[in-house]
Amino acid sequence: MQEEILKLIELQKIDLEILRIERDLQKIPESLQKAQKERDQINKKLELLNTNLEEKRGQKKFFEEELQEEYQRLKKTQARLMQIRGTREYQLLLKEIEEIKRNNKQKEDEILKLMEEIENLEKDKDKLEKKLEEIEAIFNEEEQKFNKFCQELLNQKGKLLEKREKLIQKISQNLLKKYEAVRQKKAGIGIAPVINSICEGCHMAIPPQLYNELQRDNKYYECPHCKRLIYYKKIYVLEEEENKSLEHTQSLKR
Ligand SMILES: [Zn+2]
After folding, report:
1. C-alpha distances in angstroms, 240 versus 5, 7, 145, 236?
2. Ligand 1 centre distance from Cα of residue 119 (Å)
3. Mean pLDDT over residues 61-66, rounded?
4. Which terminus of the chain, N or C, has less C-beta within 10 A?
C-alpha cells in the first residue's frame, strides 16, 4: 500500500469532479434554450410586423394627403362652375368634377382598407407583445435558475481546487508530473485501477508478468497500452472506503 498512490487516487477523483463541473457549466439547460429560441422567434416576428405596420401607415398618410389636395381641387372646380356661362365649358367642368369624385372615392376606399389592415396588424402586435412578455418572464426565471446553479457549481469547484492544492503538496513532483502529462492527453484520467488483468483506463489486458508485479505493489507501474499510472484495485479500494476524506469527495458527487 503506497501512500502516494492513495493520494493520486484521491487527486484523480477531485480532477474528474472538476471536469464534470466544467462540463455542466457549459451545458445550457434545454428549458433555457427553448425559452431563448421562442423569445428570439417572437422578436423576429414583431420586427417584421412593425416594418409592415410602418409601411401601411405611411401609405395611408400619403393617400390622405393626396385626398386633401383633391378635395381642394374639387372645391375650386365647383366654384368655377358657378361662374360659367357657356354650355360646352359647363359640361366639361361637370365631367371633370365627376372624375375627381370618382378618383376620390377610390382613394377613400383604399384608405378604409388600409385602416382595417392597420387595425388587424395592431391586434396581432398586441398579442405578440403579450406573448413576448410571458416568454421573457419564463426566460428570466430559467436564466436565474441556471445562474444560481452555475454559482453553486463554481463554489464547489473552488472548494475542490483548494483541496487539490493541499493534496498535491503531498505528492512527489515526478509522480505528479507524470500523472498530469497523461491526464492531459488521456481524457482527464491519469491513474487507473487494474482488476482481473484489465486496465480500467483503456480496457485492455496487461501482460501476466506485469499483473503479478502490480499485485506486489512495491513501485509505480504504468499501463503498456495507454501509459496511465496503474494500481492493483484490490489493494486500494478497501482502504479507499475507509478513508474519510475520500468519502467526502464522494458526497460531493450528485
Ligand atoms: Zn491502460
Report:
1. 11, 10, 36, 6
2. 72
3. 97
4. C
